[in-house]
Design a protein that fits this description.
The chain is of the alpha/beta class and 203 residues long. It is built from 7 helices and 4 strands, in the order H-E-H-E-H-H-E-H-E-H-H. Helix 2 links the parallel strand 1 and strand 2. Helix 1 packs across helix 6, helix 2 packs across helix 3 and helix 4 runs parallel beside helix 5. The longest helix is centred in the C-terminal third of the chain and has 16 residues.
């Protein structure tokens, strides 16, 4: 794979922005504590007053996989992503009153659209939001949350996990599989959405 292809894929997949003040922090779920730890840091630095961790049990696995890192610190009896992320947030200084949970999602699309349902049920107006997610998951998260929140300015603040980064993803089997898998999903999972979006733009 030549350098142009590697760099073009990296620029697309590893979407990232500088943090800025927002109305809420969205957290598409997972089993690694680094994203919620970073979200807690942003909260304590005053970037947003609310956090919405989203995630039930993956539809692929059918069960919660267990804590991927720092299980000595995060040792609760977790049954889903949301429970785990909520515990990480509270252990890192976020009050429960600032956390809005969503625990039914089975995949990233659910994370986005069920988060929208929760926000609407609470009557919240979200003008600006931060998404904290895995770095190789950033583009797909941005696309799906933007579809769910078309009127909202989204700021993506990703975290590197599994030692996969924008610079080294192509050097390992795991990194290559994860990133190229995301590249494929950013195409095949959005065909209907993009066609509908283009139709609206051209109407």
């Amino acid at each position: 794979m030549n350098d142009r292809i590697i760099s073009d894929i990296a620029e697309f997949i590893f979407a990232a922005d500088q943090p800025k003040h927002a109305d809420i922090i969205f957290l598409p779920g997972g089993s690694d504590p680094l994203p919620p730890e970073y979200a807690a840091k942003l909260y304590k630095e005053g970037y947003a007053p609310l956090l919405l961790p989203s995630g039930g049990v993956s539809v692929k696995r059918g069960k919660w996989p267990g804590v991927q890192r720092k299980a000595d610190i995060y040792s609760g009896d977790y049954h889903n992503d949301c429970e785990f992320y909520t515990d990480v947030l509270t252990i890192n200084g976020v009050p429960r009153s600032a956390i809005i949970p969503e625990n039914q999602s089975g995949h990233t699309r659910d994370n986005a659209f069920l988060s929208r349902s929760v926000v609407d049920e609470r009557g919240l107006e979200i003008k600006t939001a931060i998404i904290v997610c895995k770095s190789f998951h950033a583009r797909r998260c941005l696309m799906l949350y933007q579809l769910a929140f078309p009127e909202t300015e989204l700021i993506v603040c990703p975290v590197d996990v599994y030692d996969i980064t924008k610079d080294n993803w192509h050097t390992t089997k795991l990194g290559t599989e994860r990133v190229l898998g995301e590249l494929a999903r950013c195409g095949n999972q959005f065909v209907g959405d993009v066609m509908q979006y283009l139709k609206l733009l051209n109407s």
